[in-house]
Amino acid sequence: MDRRNFVKTSLAAAGTLSLSSMGISLDATKTHALSLSFDDGFKKSFYRIAEIHENYGLNACLNVIATGHLKSFNTEPKWIPQQLLGDFDDWNKLKERGHEIMPHTWEHLNLTEVPIEKAKENIGKCLDHFETHLAGYSAEGAVYNFAYNASNTTLEDYAMTKVSAVRTGGWLVLKDSKVNQFPIKELPQRLGCWGHGPDFCDQYVEQEIHAFLASDGGWLILNLHGLDEEGWGPVSTTYLDELLKRLTKVDFLTVQPTGEIVKQLSGK
Ligand SMILES: [Zn+2]
Fold first, then answer.
1. If 223 and its partner were Cys, which of 61, 102, 195, 241 is the partner (CB 3.0–4.6 Å)?
2. 58 CB contacts (<8 Å, ≥6 apart)?
3. How far is the CA of 48 from the centre of ligand 1 (A)?
């Protein structure tokens, strides 16, 4: 019997007892967790992504660049033009509405391609900026999202001294699996994610989620960016809306930001 059927059978055997009277939270029925982890901080897209999530009672997983709002932000790579990026007023407003805002680098460098001391300094400056500019930010339960999902164990270990989890390429940390452990059992965690670009990723997302829902479960993290014309590998607004509408009807699935799942273990 796979875990999903085991949980369902166990709950059925409990008869008329309510879950809460048994001390079981509804999340105990969830065998599958999905995080749609949006990077870079496109202002127009991120407000729209938040609205779409709100329509289905969900919180969005939004990862932003600490210096992206500054005119000095390097407009390379071409997928992240500075004028499209929001600032910490926007991020605080979205956080106030219940969405998750997490660090996605200081200046969007590939940290595996710069000297290690500069890479560590970048991680430190990014996290300090969040401490001072994002209301209610706590390092405990936080997820650091590597730019380009590029990292190595030295950089991951360093970041994990400062936050509860890092998100990087699934090909780097997940070995033979597409999914992360769920529920997670220890912190800090190296979380692996997957993505597709530079063109629209609707079809890729659909395929990955379809296969995931047919599997025994785990925690799938898909890395997305902007909507429609914004960002690398964009997802279309209409597809995201239709997808979340469908997914909220799947009883064994929870759709949550990465940090929310990490915080369930950190107790925060
Ligand atoms: Zn990025």
1. 195
2. 244, 248, 255, 256
3. 18
